[in-house]
TrEMBL record:
This is Uncharacterized protein YciI. It comes from the Bacteria. Belongs to the YciI family. Transmembrane segments: none annotated. InterPro entries: Dimeric_a/b-barrel, Sec-metab_biosynth-assoc, YCII. Residues 3-86 form the YCII-related domain. Pfam families: YCII (PF03795).
Length: 93
C-alpha cells in the first residue's frame, strides 16, 4: 500500500492551542492503524511549529482524511496542510 507524507505548518501564535490539544492529537495518532511515523517540526528554540506524519493509505483521499480528522485541524492549529505521495529511499519504517 502506498505511503503519504502529511506536512503541516502551524499558524503563527498557535503554540498554546497546540499544547492544549496535544493529548487528544496523540490519542488520535496512537489509534490510527495506518500511521507509520509522526513528529513535530521544531523551530531553532525547540518549539513545535508544525508536524510531519507518514501514513499508509490506499489513496490520497484516505491520507487527506487522516489530516482532516486530526484534532489539531479541528482546533485550528494548522495554517497549511499538504498531502504528498511519498517513497522511502533510505532507512526503514
Amino acid at each position: 500500500m502506498p505511503l503519504y507524507a502529511i506536512i503541516c505548518k502551524d499558524k503563527p501564535g498557535a503554540l498554546e492551542t497546540r499544547l492544549a490539544t496535544r493529548p487528544t492529537h496523540l490519542d488520535y495518532l496512537n489509534n490510527s492503524p495506518n500511521l507509520k511515523l509522526a513528529g513535530a517540526l521544531l523551530d531553532d528554540d525547540g518549539n513545535p511549529i508544525g508536524s510531519i506524519i507518514v501514513v499508509e493509505a490506499e489513496d490520497k483521499a484516505t491520507a487527506q482524511a487522516q489530516a482532516d480528522n486530526d484534532p489539531f485541524t479541528a482546533a485550528g492549529v494548522f495554517e497549511s496542510v499538504e498531502v504528498h505521495f511519498w517513497r522511502l529511499a533510505i532507512g526503514s519504517l
